Amino acid sequence: MIHKTQSSQIDNRVMCHFPEGKCAHDNTRTIAVGMSGGVDSSVTAAILQEMGYSVIGLFMKNWEEKDEAGLCTTEADASDVARVCDTLHIPHYTVNFAKEYKEHVFAEFLAQLKRGKTPNPDILCNREIKFKLLLDHALKLGADALATGHYAQNISRDGQHMLLRSVDTGKDQTYFLYTISQYALQRVLFPIGAMQKSEVRSLAKKHGLHTASKKDSTGICFIGERNFRAFLQNYLPYQPGNFETLDGTVVGRHIGVAYYTNGQRRGLGLGGEGEPWFVIDKRIHDNVVVVERGLHHPALYASALIAKEPHWIGGAPPQLPLSCSAKIRYRQQDAPCVVAQAPNGCLLVHFETPMRAITPEQAIVFYQGAACLGGATIDCQTHLPA
Fold this sequence. Notes:
By secondary structure, the protein is an alpha/beta fold.
């Protein structure tokens, strides 16, 4: 268990904001914790229980199919959730969103892949499942808030909720949370957002949680860490075509445009003398993957992009043009940029330094300091006149 001094320290760092009229420090409140079977959500439940809240665990079953070895990772995760909740002596429930996940997340994921795009199902899952269906389910159970093990921070300022980066910047997950609504932020807690990962694992050990040393999941949201190509082939049969250079020279054969992404180097099967090959573009209409040699080939870079379907954390869009920073993929440092209005509700984003491998249907997420302002879906790269 956490010692008194540790508990007090955590209480000061975990900011629990409840809907209007509910006191954040009223420890009779009930908090539902979205539990995945991992160490982060396990410690989230332990922290809130130690703070005196009534805690219930919620495990989402969003995928029911077994992997190539005949295993279902969902079953193992559900078992881990049960063990953690038994250790903490809290009730837990399983809710099955497999149908909704397939309809609202996985179907869109496949549709975009068929169009030659590279979608991010984790962002869609957060928007459509975790902070919509799971949140609604938690509230219907009588919980006052939903807590998750995300590395992010949620603060309230002048009646407006803000999404901030986590203290552990290496684990920060705000990139995947940019579509969260003000409604959800008013009812969601991120207790480990003010902690380092090492602290989380240390607390798990102190509580005797068997997930303390469990490996972090790095697979696709709720699908798991399986062979991506073998998995996709069940839904998108191979459609071989040509690898071509920008001048139209055929340099090899690919298994299908859906299996490649801009900037990709590994898995192309292209060799020969010279620098490595990289994916430059994909042409869905004639089933061609465009490649060129060299990590720094000019065609891999662009100074601007068009983004669609913007979502702003504050609800209303900021005044444009806006100087801020942005990232176009999760594992990336912010890059200074200017965001301006573009036709049809889109955004034109101009970077100070050209960006490498801008990928349609991936997210671009905007920041000012620690604050995540929101984001949008990349439509295409472009170049501004010099």
